[in-house]
User: Fold this.
Amino acid sequence: MAADEKAKAKGEQIAGKVKKAVGGAVGNESLKAKGKAEESQGDLRAAKEKTKDAIKPK
Assistant:
């Protein structure tokens, strides 16, 4: 399950970066903002997974 969440986080980060770049290139502030939000969501998901891995007993 953790691998799925990590992959989902990475996908959100990449999709957000692409949207942010395209929005900036064409001057679409709405798309740029959506990209930033999606990238941030991916960052938060990745941080959550790293925390879970750090707490997990070995």
Summary: The mean pLDDT is 93. The helical segments are 2-26, 29-55. Residues 29-55 form the longest helix (27 residues). The CA atoms of residues 22 and 32 lie 7 Å apart.
